[in-house]
Structures are given as C-alpha cells and as structure tokens.
Amino acid sequence: MRRLVRHGLAGLAATTFAAVAAVTTLGADATPTAAPPPVAPAATGDFVPVQFVPADPVADAQRAATAERDSREAERTRIAAATAQAAYQRALGLATQGQAIDQQSSRIKAEIKAAKAKAEAAEAAAEAAEKKARDAAIANQGYTPGTTDVREIARQILANKFSYGEDQYACFSWIITRESNWNVHAENPSGAYGLPQSLPGSKMASVGPDWRDNPATQIIWGAQYMKSRYGSPCDAKSHWESAGNY
C-alpha cells in the first residue's frame, strides 16, 4: 500500500509540472484569433435535450431477486441474507479506501470476515427455511408443490398422507382408470363426478371447496372413501372386480 501511495504522489507531481508548463506556454506571444460569436440563449419554451441516464440492470436484478420466495418465513430469512450480503459488500468497499490503511486494515479484515460468515450463515438459513416451507406444503397437501402430473400427485398423496406403497397405488390407479380415465372433470349422467366418480360429486367438498377442479382434493377423498368403506384401495379393487363398482 505504501508503494502505491508513493507512486500516486509521483504521478501528482508530474501532473502539476505539466500544468505549470501549459500555463507558461499560454502566457507567451501567440497569433490573435477572433473570438467565436456569442450563442444566443434558448428562448423560453424551446426544447432542451436532456441526457438519458440508463437504468442500472444490476440493481434492478438484485431488487427483483428478493421477490422470488413463496413463504413469509423464507422471505424474512432472505431479507436477512440480503442485509448481510450488503454489509459484506460494504466491508469490501472499505478495503479499497486508501486513507489510514495501516490503522484500518486490521479492522477492515475483521469486518470482512465477520460479514462473510454472517452472509454464509444467512444463506444457509434461507435454504433451510425454503426446505421447511416445502416440507410443510407436502405435509399439508400430500405432494411436492409444482407437480402437475395427476398420476404422480396421486402416488405422492397415497404415500405421504396414507402411508401406502406402490401395490396400493397400483390398485388405486386401476380403479380410477376405469371410473374416470384420470379425467378430473369426468361427469356421469347419474351425477357421479371427478376422478373417483363421487356420487354426488359434492361429497368431495368434505375435503375441500375446490373439489370440482383440484385433482388433489378428489384423490384424497377417493383414498379416504376406499379406506373407510373397504379397508384399502386393493380391497376396493377386489370388490370392484366382483361387483363392477365400488
């Protein structure tokens, strides 16, 4: 750092010498030139162009990044991570200052180290909060948020909410295929509706008010019905094979 300061002083001296030489040269005799004509001031109301200042895409991206979390807990943790990251960047900025380097270097290094550790801890906490929110969603609705395949939703719900394995899922799938061919809006003239062909369809409102369109609501109701009436999806399948319905 001292070497950089010495080089900076030498550069400042050279710049000063050049400025003095330029002033001396300007003081010598020179051929007179005509002064340019004065520029008339713009009249009131004339258009005066204003320099365009481009947006800062980096700042915009940083602000947008904080809006991507789904839950309040994850959002609060991400804000803490962003605050810690800002402190870390501030500490790095302090390290570039050239004033009182010898006195400030130890403090700056300690601040950088502490800020970096805090940012890493906050980032880890944010990841943990996201996982907790995801696990809570799975426990609540039975399947991973974002899953769109109806059969996969059913497989996860049967495993997470009913502790059924692939054998019970296979029996459940066998019944649903024959009842509605996995059509959430399948409707029978008798009034049966949805994946499990609940009769009437409004019975599924006991699980959720979105029973007409939500496959998860229909799957949960169907699995509960099979379990309460027959004992399991495979027992319901056995009855369906002998009676033609369940």
UniProtKB/TrEMBL annotation:
**For this UniProt entry, which residues form the secretion signal?**
1-21
A Pfam match: SLT
Q: Does the keyword Zinc apply?
A: no
Q: Which domain of life is it from?
A: Bacteria
Record key words, sorted: Coiled coil, Signal
Q: Which residues form a coiled coil?
A: 105-139
Domain (Transglycosylase SLT) ranges: 171-234
Name recorded for this polypeptide: Transglycosylase SLT domain-containing protein
Q: Which SUPFAM superfamilies match?
A: Lysozyme-like (SSF53955)
